[in-house]
């Protein structure tokens, strides 16, 4: 079935966050009341904090116990906190009730953060929904009818007017147009589409009206598959997460069983009295509580997130901060990631007797009447030059554009198109380099002559490098060619080289663009492995293959077509400025300034976080072991156990805050 256009707003994470905040407030006032010896108020506020902060953990723990027949850390925390509270009431040491409340507060905060992260899937799908049409214009008995997308059937004919989103995957039966497929394939230039070719749902029709024939059910469209892939990839728990969950449940089971045995056996085995036995068992539950272990991880990751934000690196959750430091392979999208995603005039090659400025001015005179991205790039390059708009302009779809500039006809377009009007191809006096940086305004009109060559040979060479070559003629004379390209980011090659030095074993490019352009960009930035002409599901399959070989794989992208791969990757990284809404929602890390060198910074931050987490876990486990031994060998009392337990928690928390330092 089709995914609904609107999803119900889910507010569970807001409820959990509010509960954690309220629990903390009640604990603070409860502590204040104890400090002022207002016992009545303290015994009212602290139990309220228990109920509000511990409700969700208790519910989940009991659900796991009764439905899945397993124990987890949530239930262990509740038992430990209640044990501390009961012991505090029994011994009239009311500060122990506060200690139990702190245990609940820690887990309440953790639960709220987890709830927030779990909502990313729904937000991602809601962003994808904005690309889909609710209705389609279908032809019935020669008349147009507006019907719901869900009512479309295979064989229906639909009409898509210029500037409209295509409602479902279909085949063109009549018409000619350009279709902007950047949302699906990532191609930087709109593609000419004509009879017999397939168009995809969510892509944008260009200048021409199209009649389409539905050849597969709407729920099987490429965009709907993208939505399902995003949902599936985000809800699948990675192996590391599954391991942590299993460890938590086994740990909880061991502690609870050990606590029960310690509450029953010592009177029979060690001749302890029952008061001592219960006291030691409850102390055991408190000191064995995994709060120090939890504090060993979360404060460190939160500090790393804050440090990343200072550097323009937005981590959406702490797990990905840790994961980025383990990355062994990285996949890059091309358009908008390794390149700027915007077409620019890369070079102007005039023929003998003309300057670069002459070529640009003549081309801009007709392209100013075009809405094609190539035309917009030419007009932008000529913005500082003086030129007049041509008249009687007409575009020939897929070929070029013509118009009258003064008393002469201007022809701009493909080589074959221009040759229909100009039969002679003159020699060219080329710019010093056929590759380089985009043309700067100060360079226009002063190209330096090195040698003469045929214009056609120069154009062919540039096209082999993946660039688009536009021929410009006026009257019977070819003025030159304009080279259009999607500019490679200046920092891309340097960033990739530094990633290799950091230990990344494999760096690949995944793009929907053509093979020739992809290899040209890959060669420029130093990528060896290239996968071109990919659909979103193809990118997803390649990420899965890389994960089988390298385990931890990062994906860097910016478009809707990257969303499934971003979701499947161990770490999804999106470009913050130009990234699509769904890419930003799906990714785990966002580079706020679109600076590729920040990937290296994120990896270094992740490696530091890993090291600190390992140190903290060692310290936390060491304290737990010492306290457990002290409980049964040294006979430490509960206050000392709580001090040791809370002290270890504070110690590892402060250790985690080291990441806040530069």
Automatic annotation (TrEMBL):
Classification via PROSITE patterns: ATPASE_E1_E2 (PS00154)
Entry keyword annotation includes Nucleotide-binding: yes
Keyword Lyase among record annotations: no
GO CC terms: plasma membrane
Database matches in InterPro entries: ATPase_P-typ_cyto_dom_N (IPR023299), ATPase_P-typ_P_site (IPR018303), ATPase_P-typ_TM_dom_sf (IPR023298), ATPase_P-typ_transduc_dom_A_sf (IPR008250), ATPase_P-type_domA (IPR059000), Cation_Transport_ATPase (IPR051949), HAD-like_sf (IPR036412), HAD_sf (IPR023214)
Residue span(s) of domain P-type ATPase A: 131-231
Compartments (UniProt record): Cell membrane
GO molecular function annotation: ATP binding; ATP hydrolysis activity; ATPase-coupled monoatomic cation transmembrane transporter activity; metal ion binding
TM helices/strands, residue ranges: 15-32, 38-58, 70-90, 96-117, 251-270, 282-306, 617-636
CDD domains: P-type_ATPase_HM_ZosA_PfeT-like
Membrane association type: Multi-pass membrane protein
Keyword field: ATP-binding, Cell membrane, Ion transport, Magnesium, Membrane, Metal-binding, Nucleotide-binding, Translocase, Transmembrane, Transmembrane helix, Transport
Pfam family, one: Hydrolase
PANTHER family membership: CADMIUM_ZINC-TRANSPORTING ATPASE HMA1, CHLOROPLASTIC-RELATED, PROBABLE CADMIUM/ZINC-TRANSPORTING ATPASE HMA1
Record-stated family: Belongs to the cation transport ATPase (P-type) (TC 3.A.3) family. Type IB subfamily.
Protein name: Heavy metal translocating P-type ATPase
Source species: Brasilonema sennae CENA114
Lineage: Bacteria, Bacillati, Cyanobacteriota, Cyanophyceae, Nostocales
